Write the structure tokens for this entry.
Amino acid sequence: MKKHFYIATAVTAALGIAMFMAPANAASTDPTTTTPTSSSSSSSSTSTKSDATKDKTKKVIPAATLVSTESYDQPLPYHMKSGYIYTTSGLNKTLGSAKDFAKVTWYAYKKVVIDRSAQGKGTSVWYYVKSGNGKQTGYVWHGNLQDISEGTFDIAMKNSDYFSKDKIITMGDSITAGYDGYETLDSGYPTWLARYLGTTVDNAAYNGAFLGDAGEMATPGDLSTTVNDTNFAKYDVATIAYGTNDYGHTDNTIDQLKSILDSNIKKMKAENPKLIIYGFLPITRYDNNQNSDEVTGQGGYTMNDLRAAEAQVYQDNDVPVLNWNDVDPNLITDANHIDRFNDGRLHPAAKTYQLMARDIAKFMIDNFPQDQIKKTTSSKKKTTKTTNKTTTAKKTTSTKATSQY
């Protein structure tokens, strides 16, 4: 508090004595503070303000207490919609805000309960998270995290505006559906495609779907059934990704599969001559922990035989074909398949789905028809959306955030 001192001086010719009178509030002055003279009051006031500022800066925030920890078998992806990320479970030092990490994907590795009584707050649920590249880690209040399929999360790639306002349909089996070997995730590669391409994606994939005629094992998501049930005039882009279930579970021949794939592509093009189609070859599978590329399956062909056959059909129909061995040979290997597959055999983990989507998005951009590139693009933020025709298992997170986190 500023202290004002009133100095009254009475000079008499007779006595030559100066009388000093102190103010009435002098008794309330901090006893450790020296009473300044009038000539130094300004500098002292400035010093007092500076000291007060330093005191506030040096204020120590007490650490919160970790109550319990639950590790996840598989980390799932989120983005921050608000709030802060803290460096430790003590929650007394921030790494940054949601704005600082607007384009970062966070994977939740643990759910923790933290008691913030020491900080004047209650007990709440937090996630221990790592950035997609593994360079940042920290703790985020669960209500400040949002599923990647929800909210505003602009991570659109360069030239993704080729797909501006386009509507995409993805067709395929469990891998396109986002199945991880145990449950169907919201964060399969079609969901990531919607983000990377900044557009709308309808996922028509189905767990266990087949390229060819599967008889009693047929599903509503088989290629022929999906093509017959879909109005392709409503879509601008379609992706096809089948084959692994035919290799593993049917005795259809290579020629039969080629014929079915060819006829369906021609039907799609007849229904919509401007439809852009992309073909994705099957990824390597590890039945009995063995690389299937050169193993003969039930139909009398290897996985590499199947890939070559599908690739030939796509090329004959002028459809760009994504071969994982060319686009990203290190995606699934003998050395990493246990980690990259959530079941260790065939179905990708959540982080692998993101890697796949990034490769697919880049491939689609690089192979977009030059004559269909739009002349003008909008500077407005793109709206992205992914819909699934099949029921999926959803993660539950609170969407109500407050400024205290």
Q: What stands out?
A: The CA atoms of residues 157 and 315 lie 26 Å apart. The radius of gyration is 33 Å.
